[in-house]
Design brief:
It contains 8 helices and 10 strands. The chain is α/β, with parallel strands linked by helices. The strands form 2 sheets. Strands 6-7-8-3-9-10 form a 6-stranded mixed β-sheet, with helices on both faces. The structure holds adenosine-5'-triphosphate and magnesium ion (MG).
């Protein structure tokens, strides 16, 4: 057997984790209707880094919010592990969002009053895990993102890149099926961006963690297994 399958083979063999079918999204503002997404079809494979690029205002964040169950589509379906998530009750949908989805945004949204360790442990505590166990998981994750030495520091005492790595650790806390990231390095300088991009790539390879990332950053796009462009309400294959 081949010792290492190519990235393409790896992708072809991977299970489909998320599938969006005929997704439309329109916004109403007064009498005008803005059709942002018009027929999105997308399959995300387990363990892949899928990057979506596109001009400002084209609907990338809108799409990411729908894939992450933060917003409902106007039409169409999103299946996570073959479950049609928008057919679930609000309570079950909230559970899917909390358990299965991890989010990383351009601005980290860490809680300023809490230490790095507490920020990462928080989703686990909210989920009802014992404090000691939550702390242990959080400590391990902070180690994985290279922040062993910063566990007791508050966000304001960390650099932008460190804060964003805490946000990655927090997104990983509940072992989500998929991590959705909206311009994760949009607020970082080049060195910190590269560190974050390397971290995302490493997590995808070592944990088979699945990422859907919206970015304008070409270096991050270069790390994608697949690159798509959102334009005219639809997704199109894109090459670097
Ligand atoms: N809640 C809303 N109500 C009305 N219109 C909205 C709403 N959210 C977004 N829009 C509009 O939908 C379009 C797509 O917005 P979106 O934020 O998804 O774009 P984007 O591709 O993420 O842009 P950027 O690259 O600037 O972040 C924009 O024209 C925006 O004004
Ligand atoms: Mg956006």
């Amino acid at each position: 057997m081949n010792k290492l399958s190519t990235d393409k083979e790896r992708l072809e063999q991977a299970q489909i984790l998320l599938r969006a079918q005929d997704v439309d999204k329109s916004y109403l503002s007064g009498p005008t209707r803005l059709d942002v997404l018009t027929g999105i079809n997308l399959e995300v494979h387990r363990g892949e880094i899928l990057v979506i690029v596109g001009a400002s205002g084209v609907g990338k964040s809108t799409l990411l919010h729908i894939l992450g169950a933060l917003d409902h589509p106007t039409r169409g379906t999103v299946e996570l592990n073959a479950t049609d998530i928008f057919s679930l009750s609000d309570k079950k949908l909230a559970r899917v969002r909390n358990r299965a989805m991890g989010f990383i945004f351009q601005f980290h949204h860490l809680l300023p009053e809490f230490t790095a360790l507490e920020n990462v442990a928080m989703p686990l505590l909210i989920d009802g895990r014992k404090p000691k166990e939550a702390e242990e998981v959080a400590r391990g994750l902070l180690g994985e993102v290279g922040l062993d030495g910063c566990v007791d520091q508050k966000p304001g005492e960390l650099s932008g890149g460190e804060q964003q790595r805490v946000a990655v650790a927090r997104a990983l806390a509940k072992s989500p099926l998929i991590i959705l990231a909206d311009e994760p390095s949009g607020n970082l300088d080049r060195a910190n961006s590269e560190m974050l991009h390397d971290l995302i790539w490493r997590l995808s390879r070592s944990k088979n963690q699945t990422f859907v990332i919206v970015t304008h950053n070409e270096k991050l796009a270069a790390k994608a297994d697949r690159l798509l462009r959102l334009s005219d309400g639809r997704l199109w294959p894109e090459t670097l």
